[in-house]
């Protein structure tokens, strides 16, 4: 999108932006099996971070075509000064998302790390548990997948990754979580639980949709 007019039309068009987001979702959904395989080689099974840049071609009808993807892109604005603000926004948003940047002062962060409930005040248990209206039918806990999201049935590992997801959501700034095609079956139990959980969150708050 080198032409300024095309850039302006694309950014002002919900259709164009939505097409770009759907394109990104398809890329990551198709690569999910390979990404899960790569995770097996890592000591930590928690979320990992990789910054990528995707280059698109947009025609006069705002159809979006993926041209290439660059892993660990160069964010130096030395050769194109106009991108300085854009790159600064990208870095700030990403640092906030992964927890490097924070709205808290250094002293408050250090104090919060001294007690065990540091992450709970950012995402209390009550904000994680859901499906309260269905939990009465969750005996045993494996009666339905939704039961795994009830307070009486939720495993510590599930509570941990949903808490991390909630904290990421509150720290995402201008970042957006991609939505995969609902028609495709989740590849892991965690994916399935996250999809169900986000669906409930979406009913109560638009930002989760």
UniProtKB/TrEMBL annotation:
Organism domain of life: Eukaryota
Gene Ontology terms describing biological process: reproductive behavior
InterPro entries in the cross-refs: TTL/TTLL_fam, Tubulin_polyglutamylase
Signal peptide range in chain numbering: none
PANTHER family: LD09343P
Similarity annotation: Belongs to the tubulin--tyrosine ligase family.
Entry protein name: Uncharacterized protein
Protein source organism: Cylicocyclus nassatus (Nematode worm)
């Amino acid at each position: 999108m080198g032409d300024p007019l095309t850039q302006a039309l694309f950014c002002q068009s919900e259709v164009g932006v939505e097409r770009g987001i759907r394109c990104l979702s398809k890329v990551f959904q198709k690569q999910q099996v390979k990404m899960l395989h790569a995770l097996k080689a890592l000591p930590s099974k928690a979320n990992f971070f990789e910054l990528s840049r995707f280059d698109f071609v947009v025609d006069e009808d705002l159809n979006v075509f993926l041209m290439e993807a660059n892993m660990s892109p160069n964010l130096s604005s030395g050769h194109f000064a106009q991108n300085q603000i854009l790159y600064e926004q990208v870095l700030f948003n990403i640092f906030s998302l992964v927890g490097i940047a924070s709205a808290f002062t250094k002293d408050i962060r250090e104090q919060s790390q001294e007690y065990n409930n540091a992450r709970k005040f950012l995402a209390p248990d009550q904000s994680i548990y859901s499906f309260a209206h269905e939990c009465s039918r969750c005996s045993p806990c494996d009666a339905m997948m939704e039961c795994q999201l009830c307070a009486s049935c939720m495993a510590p590992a599930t509570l941990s990754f949903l808490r991390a997801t909630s904290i990421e959501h509150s720290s995402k700034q201008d970042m957006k979580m991609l939505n995969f095609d609902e028609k495709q079956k989740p590849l892991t139990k965690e994916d399935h639980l996250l999809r169900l959980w986000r669906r409930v969150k979406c009913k109560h708050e638009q930002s989760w949709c």
